[in-house]
Amino acid sequence: MSAAVVPKPLHGRRALLFAGLVALGLGHALAAIAWSLLVRAMIHRLGAPQQATGWLPGAGSTALGLALATAAMLGLERVLAERLGQSWVNDLRVTVFEHIARTPVREYRRSTGATSLRFVGDMTALRRWAALGLAKLAVAVPMLAGCLVALTLASPLVAATVGVVVLGGFLGIQALTPRLYETSVEARRRRARVAAHVTERVRSRLVMQAYGQEDKERRLLHRRSSRLAGAMVRRARMVGAVRATGEATIMIATGTALVAAFIAGVDAAAAAGALAVIGILTTPLRDLTRVAEYRVGATVSMERLAATLRRPIRPRLDSGEVVEPPEGAGTLSVRNVSVTGVLSRVSVELPGGSTVALVGPNGSGKSSLLTVLAGLLLPDSGQVLLDGVDLRAVDEQELRRMIRLVGPDLPLLRGTVADNIRYAAPDADEEAVAEAIRLSGLDEVLAELPDGPRTRVGEGGTGLSAGQRQRVALARAVLGRPRVLLLDEADAHLDPTAATAVDRLIAGFPGTVVVVTHRPERINSVQMVWRLRGGQVEVGTDGWREQLTAWA
């Protein structure tokens, strides 16, 4: 297993966008220098009105040109910055989604709410860092340097004074950063708890209503929301301190520049030019003040994303490593398979085309064994072979086509019934879909639904009965004629009609079937029984029909 590589904010095309932003910063710097020189020249000319008449049109045109150029650069800066942020966040979002999708179930047990926060709150913080932090840094640093050059042209003393004040302001902001980080971590943790609580309770609101716990859950949410509010206020206090430091730096820089100009004996024209530059200087100073805020938020979010991406996933096979199983009936060979805490050196053989009932007490590891047989959970040791080929050597998409799993952890998805049937094989032809519907007994259900296969279902299959949901799930699994069908208590909690449909599917399925069941009558449709107890599998032989009730 391997961990994912975190996309870099300045990788590939984004490096060019960043270079473009730096170029815009240099353009702003040149504009600031030009504006300072223009103001200085205008003040000189205004001191001699008789010389200004022929010069004013040119000066006005220059000023208008600088204003239009600055406006154009600001507009382009916003576009490039947003492209930089969206490009990075898009890569991050896809990387995190793919990683979570490929992470074994036992490796990832985060709540839905906390996971959603990865894709909303954390991505927003990272986008802000790229679009409003890195981008502003690229523009503000050259612009700040240009302003200091312009001040140096007016008076080296003024430039040195402003530079010292700006440096002091940045050191003050840096001193506040650790505390800002602490409050940001706390705020994010509180936000994740509230998001997890709300998401999970809303999804399970019927449980709240059935047990009369609405008031209790409301009080719990109120407490957690109050703690979140307190954490956000503490963070806001530190953000306010950082921003106040930046504003104070701007005001002090302006005041000290005037004092320095007076001490240096700068003439009125040079002083006016310096003040014009200081006015321009406020923009990069404010931007750089916000950079610290965005950087801290991004650091906190990236730490959580990095923790997610460090979780091991199943590596993709190179083309030279892939082995295609030969044509076969779906023979499964389990050899010395162990999963810590669940299975211990399990070795069993299931001939192709046969049906086995997997029984055992609750918590014995039946579902875990099925996920191992499906190749969704890699064992700590041992191997599972499909028609003589190790599952780990089979192309992942091909493996999913050959082995299908039905169980309570594989619910229906939001969409139509037809969307759910075709989920595993979107390109399946109508004949294959019709066969899957017939095998699963779904044709009877479709006749009852108001819009047939176009009937919409909610998350988890809401809008359908348990029996209807199960038959849609069965049709989804058998579409494309897999070699092996794994049924995890597919007949649990079903009415007799739905249970009969499962019986017909097992009897008519042409491949290998492993069915987890607690129903003694299911034994009539299987050729073999596996009993799972204490991490070991016992194969039922003589008298196994009589033993099933005790085993189940």
From TrEMBL:
It is a multi-pass membrane protein. GO terms for cellular component: plasma membrane. InterPro entries: AAA+_ATPase, ABC1_TM_dom, ABC1_TM_sf, ABC_transporter-like_ATP-bd, ABC_transporter-like_CS, P-loop_NTPase, Type_1_exporter. GO terms for molecular function: ABC-type transporter activity; ATP binding; ATP hydrolysis activity; ATPase-coupled lipid transmembrane transporter activity. Pfam families: ABC_membrane, ABC_tran. Coiled coil: none annotated. Residues 19-291 form the ABC transmembrane type-1 domain. This is ABC transporter ATP-binding protein. The lineage of its organism: Bacteria, Bacillati, Actinomycetota, Actinomycetes, Pseudonocardiales.
